[in-house]
Amino acid sequence: MSKGLSLFEKRRRRNRTALKARAGSRPRLSVHRSGKHIYVQVIDDAQGKTLAAASTLDKDVRGQNGANIDAAKAVGTRIAEAAKKAGVTQVVFDRGGFLFHGRVKALADAAREGGLEF
Q: Which keywords does this chain's UniProt record carry (predicted)?
């Protein structure tokens, strides 16, 4: 077994360093998906604080299946609302090593429709 990083970890690091280089003072919209759920946070890297968060484990969305595109759309609209409450309208999208299709793309599109700019 090799001691190096997996391809996923390499892609995650490469993506995150590129985002930090061009983000400026914008917060980061970080996405994580598992087999059962999808999670998203708006993170201010300058202060190291989470400004807003949403996931399929929230009480409003919990009854649905978390591993489908409809649930990802619901989480995308929820994060857009939470970010607006926190006073954030412009973010940098951090897909976190996940490919931009399926649930990740559905979440991003719903967040854009909700008013976030990235």
A: Ribonucleoprotein, Ribosomal protein, RNA-binding, rRNA-binding
Q: Do 91 and 42 contact (CB within 8 A), yes or no?
A: yes
pTM above 0.85, yes or no: yes
- Reported as a single tens digit per residue, the pLDDT across 13-34 is 988 888 888 888 899 999 999 9
Alpha helices in 24-63 (DSSP H): none
Q: Which two tokens stand for residue 77?
A: 């609209």
For residue 117, give the nearest of 85, 83, 86 by alpha carbon.
83
Tokens found for residue 117? 């700019």
- What is the torsional sign of CA 54, 103, 74, 88? positive
The gap between the terminal CA atoms of the chain, to the nearest Å, is 39
Cα 40 to chain centroid, rounded: 4
